[in-house]
Amino acid sequence: MFIAKVAYRDAVAFYSAHHYLGGVSLSSSSWGLYELEGGSYNLTACCSFGAPVSENLRASIFGDDHKDRVKELQRLARSSTCSHPMSAFVARAIRNYVKERAEKSQPELWALISFADDNQGHHGGIYQAMSWLYCGSVTATIDTFKDGSGRARHRRQGGQIISRAKAQMLGWTHERVKSTKHRYLKLLGSGRKVKRLKSSLKLQTSSYPKPQRSNTAQ
Fold first, then answer.
1. CATH classification of 2-199 is 3.40.50.2000, yes or no?
2. d(C-alpha 218, C-alpha 214), whole Å
């Protein structure tokens, strides 16, 4: 088993097979877990980081002057054959991502934000297991699609926005639904730094949400 950088096209192919939203943004940084299967190492889990789409979202965490200190854990998925604990994989992927940014002399990160989609039965169990901060939920009415197999398809696919006309060409049906997402935040750095960052947060934190009884997802 080892963890390594994943090429964009390989990440997109993996998410298309194992994540309900499909691809990931072109500017993302992806890391994968490779496990020995049938004599060769195969990608069994993938984690991608990048800039949150909304500047308002980034600014809501530490203020407008520090919005570039926040990135998003944009995608996380595993295959059915993955045998490694996801929390351990994500922790190592984060360390690799932070190290990569330092080697490129990019601004030091203060936090990562991620979302768990309640509409998909996700409550953020993996983030709770890793002691991320819970910052409440956000609800909005969004445009979404379903493909011919009934699989939910987000408007953003592979870094591009899918129009209604394009969706119709693909044979997708259009829906407007209420989407509720749980927000989680990971503060980065030493214990002293994390304590200082927590005192600077603009978002309110609260206790973790509980999973639905029928929910077995992360």
1. no
2. 12
